[in-house]
Amino acid sequence: MEIERVTGADLLALTINLGHNVGSVSVIGDACPTIWGENSLIEELLLAESNFRKSTPLDYEFFPQSFTNGYNSNSFIAGLLNHVGLPAATPNNVPGFDKPVPIEHFR
Known about the structure:
Elements: H1 8-18, H2 35-54, E1 59-60, E2 70-71, H3 73-84
């Protein structure tokens, strides 16, 4: 199976043609250049999430701060991405993303 990368004007046309099912455009490039790499990454993510559920519970905070003990769902995603080695720029105005859940919770 050959996978074709869609870029530029073709990506815009694809996005418009998808209507309600619009994908996002990566600012870091393609983390999984093949279907096999994608499957492996998905398996890693699922295993890490399963390990997280078995780990010590963490305190929840709506707006976690560096000096507090709590985390939120953005912290979870940031920690999960760190654990599997996916680079992610910290988005603006996303509380908790800059305080990732420690990766030992995903092992």
